[in-house]
Design a protein that fits this description.
The complex is a heterodimer of chains A (113) and B (110). Chain A has 113 residues and is an all-beta fold. In chain A, 0% of the residues lie in helices and 50% in strands. Classes of the chains: A mainly beta (113), B mainly beta (110).
């Protein structure tokens, strides 16, 4: 059974640029959610995708967008990067949405200069 | 929205000691998970425990949903137990996300 994998693991961008982070969900899981974790804090929910549709969103601006593909893998896109976007971005997959057990990837650490 | 509080915020132990971490939540939940975040940032599932008691080796957890708290017990702690422990809950009325607590940072010294 393949776990949740994310890429890239680390990246550095400058303010105003755009970034795309990728996530492959655990085998058989049809729900993917994304979280942002700033240094020293707990993860914060960004949004969730179920069968290629966004079905939940946290308190993040529209420049945070996402996609889910037919194979249930997912992308997180962030436009017009700001310094405060520097964080660890975590992807989680589950079989039954948030009411079931979530499994997280190793995360993508983004630094915005 | 639902509030999740964890205590203590920091815990320092010597190897072999036992500890109890607590998670309080302010409303009904349909999911509760405990995670260990390793030094590289990955969240490792410890327990999926919206209610009841579970044990896995030296770790066990109990959730009393009616009283809105959960406890994580670590027995005979090892240096590899060091890291941050998070409790996360699923809001019964907003079923699209997990809400994380602020975490307990555990340091185990030999």
């Amino acid at each position: 059974e393949t776990g949740v994998t994310q890429s890239p693991t680390h990246l550095i961008k400058t303010r105003g640029q755009q970034v795309t982070l990728r996530c492959s969900s655990q085998s058989g899981h049809n729900t993917v959610s994304w979280y942002q974790q700033a240094l020293g804090q707990g993860p914060q929910f960004i949004f969730q995708y179920y069968r290629e549709e966004e079905n939940g969103r946290g308190n993040f601006p529209p420049r945070f967008s996402g996609l889910q593909f037919p194979n249930y893998s997912s992308e997180l896109n962030v436009n017009a990067l700001e310094l405060d976007d520097s964080a660890l971005y975590l992807c989680a997959s589950s079989l039954t949405g948030v009411t079931g057990e979530l499994f997280f990837g190793e995360g993508s650490r983004l630094t915005v200069l | 929205g639902i509030q999740v509080e964890q205590s203590p915020p920091d815990l320092i132990l010597q190897e072999g000691a036992n500890s109890t971490l607590r998670c309080n939540f302010s409303d009904s939940v349909n999911n509760l998970q405990w995670f260990h975040q390793n030094p590289w940032g990955q969240l490792i599932n410890l327990f999926y425990i919206p209610s009841g008691t579970k044990q896995n080796g030296r770790l066990s957890a109990t959730t009393v949903a009616t009283e809105r708290y959960s406890l994580l017990y670590i027995s005979s702690s090892q240096t590899t137990d060091s890291g941050v422990y998070f409790c996360a809950v699923g809001d019964f009325y907003n079923t699209d996300k997990l809400i994380f607590g602020t975490g307990t940072r555990l340091q185990v010294f030999p």
